[in-house]
Automatic annotation (TrEMBL):
PROSITE patterns the UniProt entry points to: TPR
Pfam families membership: RPAP3_C, TPR_1, TPR_8
InterPro entries: RPAP3-like_C, TPR-like_helical_dom_sf, TPR_rpt
Gene3D superfamilies: Tetratricopeptide repeat domain
RNA-polymerase II-associated protein 3-like C-terminal domain boundaries: 249-337
Protein name, entry field: RNA-polymerase II-associated protein 3-like C-terminal domain-containing protein
Native organism taxonomy: Eukaryota, Viridiplantae, Streptophyta, Embryophyta, Tracheophyta
TPR repeat windows: 22-55
UniProt keyword annotations, A-Z: TPR repeat
Transmembrane segments: none
SUPFAM superfamilies per UniProt: TPR-like
Length: 382
């Protein structure tokens, strides 16, 4: 007997069952997380991401991975979250934890520095910053200590060699020395010396007292190198090599990390800025450009302007296209506004440039210099 379906009732049944959506899957994942059902939570977050990927869903799944000590998956999810929202401090906080678990202390420190700059009053971020900084310093101290001990060991070995060469050798030592390194014996000078010379069995003249005194004088000359000095030098070399390893940034986060790393080297900052195609600046910064970095970039652009006016104008022109640029300018401190006016007066409009560049700079002046010119700007131009 054929079964007849009531299509109306069947359709009504389907409509009564809510279709899963990204938000409900995420909320269900949160419930599982609270119940410590982490495997089920991960499944829900994964379905939410598949339906509609969001920074929150990635960050929540990362938190669940952290609970399972799956640090690599947690790090990857945090990175995906930050690709969607590079100012999401929870994603930075969780990636700091993941990178700490993976032993990536330098990368964790980069995250901590940037996150604190975004949300300076966040107590959890400040705590993480302090913890990572302490661990990084401890790691550097251990590395420096090992290097210092190795250096001292090399000094000791060199001293032992000098001691051996400045004393007469017994017959077995002498024979071995002559067999293995006869050229050194010849270079030592097999010669007869008068007064205060004692001869070994080989006939090599050795001025024991004089050489001992000379060696003592050499050891005493100059300040003694302590373990602390060697450790300090090693730490400086380590930090130097770390600081110089910068790359062309692709996000606001990358830019800030690289820029901070070379904050004491204006020449490298210029090279870093030159390495970025000006047209990509709006995409890099999106809505994450801070007033402090805007001022730094404009100062650096002023240095570029003297050698490459076209590039400098292009940088300034594309910065204006960054999201919320007008709001950043409006919220600048009086000191920063004054700095921009002086840069425009003393560099951009004071230097010799082609007519089209001057016109472009005057047009951009209204974007950067709020309220037009002040009396001191006119004096600077005269």
């Amino acid at each position: 007997m054929a079964v007849r379906y009531n299509h109306k009732n069947y359709s009504s049944y389907l409509n009564d069952e809510p279709m899963p959506d990204a938000a409900s899957e995420k909320e269900q994942g949160n419930e599982y997380f609270k119940q410590k059902k982490f495997a089920e939570a991960i499944e829900c977050y994964s379905r939410s991401i598949a339906l509609s990927p969001t920074a929150v869903a990635f960050a929540n799944r990362a938190m669940t991975y952290l609970k399972l000590r799956r640090f690599e998956e947690a790090e990857n999810d945090c990175t995906e979250a930050l690709n969607l929202d590079d100012r999401y401090v929870k994603a930075y906080s969780r990636r700091i934890t993941a990178r700490k678990g993976l032993g990536k202390l330098k990368e964790a420190m980069d995250d901590a520095e940037f996150a604190v700059s975004v949300d300076a009053n966040n107590p959890e971020l400040r705590k993480q910053y302090s913890e990572i900084k302490a661990l990084l310093m401890e790691k550097m101290a251990k590395k420096s200590s090992v290097l210092a001990k190795h250096t001292i060991s090399e000094f000791d070995k060199a001293g032992d060699k000098k001691d051996m060469s400045s004393h007469p050798l017994s017959d077995p030592q002498k024979d071995s020395f002559m067999e293995v390194d006869s050229s050194v014996r010849a270079a030592a000078g097999i010669r007869e010396c008068s007064g205060g010379v004692s001869k070994g069995a080989s006939g090599v003249g050795l001025k024991d007292n004089n050489m001992q005194q000379s060696r003592d004088a050499k050891q005493k000359s100059g300040p003694e190198i302590s373990v602390q000095d060697l450790a300090s030098r090693a730490a400086s070399r380590y930090m130097s090599s770390t600081v110089k390893s910068v790359k062309t940034p692709k996000t606001a986060y990358d830019f800030e990390v690289s820029w901070r790393a070379i904050s004491d080297d204006p020449a490298q900052q210029i090279q870093l800025l030159k390495s970025i195609p000006p047209a990509s600046l709006p995409e890099i910064f999106k809505n994450a450009l801070s007033s402090a970095f805007l001022i730094d970039i404009v100062k650096c652009t002023a240095s570029i302007f003297r050698d490459d006016a076209e590039l400098a104008v292009s940088i300034l022109d594309n910065l204006v296209k960054v999201s919320r640029f007008d709001l950043i300018i409006m919220c600048l401190s009086p000191m920063h506004k004054s700095e921009l006016r002086k840069i425009w007066a003393q560099t951009f409009l004071a230097e010799t440039a082609s007519t089209d560049k001057v016109e472009a700079l005057r047009r951009l002046q209204s974007k950067y210099v709020e309220g037009g010119w002040h009396q001191e700007d006119m004096l600077a131009l005269s």
